[in-house]
Amino acid sequence: MKQIVRTLLLILAITFVACTQDAPKGEFGIQQLNENFPDSDEYVLIETNRGNIKLVLYKETPQHRKNFVNLVKNGYYNGQLFFRIKKEFMIQAGDPMTRGAKPGTRLGETDVTYKIPAEIDPTRFWHKYGALSAASLNPAVESSGSHFCIITGRTVYDKNLNAQEEKYNKTIRRKIYEQVQEPYQDMVAKLHAESKKSAEKKKEFNKLFKFFGEKADSAMADKKFAYSNEQRKHYKEVGGAFHLDGYYTVFGEVLEGMDVVEAISREAYDVYDRPTKDVVIKKMYLVDENGKPIQAE
């Protein structure tokens, strides 16, 4: 009996160690750190060869925040370049192949293989001046695992914001419509086939789609997006990248160093939007709210 107990304890101990150990290093040397993650904002300092930039990562976008912190702790961004800049729009980084890249080389096409589910809420976090946003090849669905941009942008007019509201609300309605239609796919396929041979079935087919539309319109009543007075004032007086709202996840913002971001965004660049003089991320590390490092540099 004692031998059985000892064996069980040994198994439990091995299991506990296995569950608490960090995962082995994966692509680009990234290790998924197994640790308790605080439900709070996190702060990151970016040291560049043009100056420093301090970021806050929002606790309300936990998946993006945790992933970014993990990459920072792994030193993933150290030595990388801001490989893409657009004056009055943004600066972008996150390609691991930018380290030591030869001048004139097209960059930005390498990324980690995993994606982060979108955490989009433009009513709270929007592409204002200084916003930290995740890049994406599949907007409104998922984000790049490592590419990010910092927004500079230009001022706009109410008509621009009105057009974006209309565009985004169409996107919302389309998604709702698809959700409403999903349970009826077999019925739709059957009626569609029958409607080609029967006028009565064609009426049923059209009636069904009218039903889908009414259900989607009803659901839109409390989901319709509209810019707040604060957002409109900011975009019209300060600037940003309003056209990204609703399609890309904003998961933080610049607290200090927007003068550095601005200077980088005004660098000369080539046909690939790469700065002609390298803008290097010397190091990224976690800091506290006051900017004091909280991990080994």
What does this structure look like?
With 297 residues, this protein is of the alpha+beta class. The protein has 2 domains: 40-155 and 238-287, Cyclophilin, CATH 2.40.100; 160-220. The chain contains 7 helices and 10 strands. The protein has helices at 2-20, 62-73, 158-181, 185-195, 199-220, 229-237, 258-265; strands spanning 42-48, 51-57, 84-86, 90-93, 115-117, 131-134, 142-144, 148-151, 250-256, 281-287. It has an 8-stranded antiparallel β-sheet. A hairpin with a 3-residue loop joins β3 and β4 (90-93). It is elongated, with a radius of gyration of 24 Å. The termini are far apart. Residues 7-21 have low confidence and may be disordered.
Q: What secondary-structure arrangement, pairings included, does this model have?
A:
Blueprint: H1 2-20, E1 42-48, E2 51-57, H2 62-73, E3 84-86, E4 90-93, E5 115-117, E6 131-134, E7 142-144, E8 148-151, H3 158-181, H4 185-195, H5 199-220, H6 229-237, E9 250-256, H7 258-265, E10 281-287
CATH architecture label of the largest domain: Beta Barrel
Task: Provide the spatial order of strands within the biggest beta sheet.
Answer: 3-4-8-6-9-2-1-10
CATH topology of the largest domain: Cyclophilin
CATH class group of the largest domain: Mainly Beta
Poorly predicted spans: 7-21
